[in-house]
Write a structure and sequence with these properties.
Strand 9 and strand 10 form a beta hairpin. The longest helix is centred in the middle third of the chain and has 13 residues. The protein is α/β, with parallel strands linked by helices. InterPro entries: CheY-like_superfamily, LytR-like, LytTR_DNA-bd_dom, Sig_transdc_resp-reg_receiver.
Length: about 250
């Protein structure tokens, strides 16, 4: 992957370049100090991905990303910044990821992996969630935004296995692991009730990933695709869950 670094701080560019050197199949094709220099370099070095700071003198990162997004086949963008308040604006210009400084090696590797998988359909879904493309026939989000140690993370709803409530937080389990959400289980059930069903007062499960239900002693448990642990079905919900699974 051809990567261009844009940051007004030389030490930050040096650190990012050293991190890239540790990642196989990546090549740093250049460095820019601000948005204007970035726009001038892109046609010369043809990057597939830009690691972009936001606050820079002259043209900032958001302005440069907006200009790039207007072109044909723009490069993917990962924002690397010390400030978290620009996340929504960043995703409006099709950012693949939003990493908070100091960027960790494993987080950069994860963002590069995501960039290699992202496609236009996913970006369209992100814009729809942010209100730029409104589908009158659907009020559901396709992505859930969550704040993590890496910054702002977007989780595809189609990748969610289940939501599990614990006190005031909800854990969302997906293919990449677990992430905490600052949302209520009730609100999630209201929004995604066609795709998830309640098996316990603290759990919502994705219909698409249920493999079956087992009777273990006095409890019923669900088998979830790709997950070793079993989820307990409460006695209150057991009958409704069995009927639902029989119709699938």
């Amino acid at each position: 992957m051809r990567v261009l670094i844009c940051d007004d701080e030389p030490l930050a560019r040096d650190r990012m370049r050293r991190m890239l050197e540790k990642i196989p199949a990546t090549l740093c094709v250049g460095e820019a100090e601000n948005g204007q220099e970035l726009l001038e370099m892109v046609p010369r070095v043809h990057p597939e991905l830009i690691l972009l700071d936001i606050r820079m003198p002259g043209m900032d990162g958001l302005q440069a990303a907006s200009r790039l997004s207007d072109g044909d086949n723009p490069p993917a963008i990962i924002f690397c910044t010390a400030y978290d308040e620009h996340a929504i604006e960043a995703f409006k210009v099709n950012a693949v990821d939003y990493l908070l400084k100091p960027v960790r090696q494993e987080d950069l590797e994860g963002a590069l992996s995501k960039a290699s998988r992202i496609n236009k359909a996913q970006m369209s879904a992100v814009r729809k969630e942010l209100g730029e493309e409104h589908d009158p026939d659907s009020s559901e989000r396709e992505y859930i935004s969550a704040r993590s140690r890496r910054g702002i993370e977007l989780i595809p709803v189609a990748d969610v296995r289940y939501f599990l409530a614990d006190q005031k937080y909800v854990t969302v389990r997906h293919s990449q692991g677990e992430t905490l959400l600052d949302e209520t289980l009730k609100d999630l059930e209201t929004e995604f009730g066609e795709r998830f069903f309640r098996i316990h007062r603290n759990a919502l499960v994705a219909l698409d990933y249920v493999e079956g239900m087992e009777h273990k002693g006095s409890q019923y448990q669900l088998r979830i695709q790709g997950i070793a642990e079993r989820l307990t079905v409460s006695r209150r919900h057991a009958s409704a869950v069995k009927k639902l699974l029989q119709r699938l």
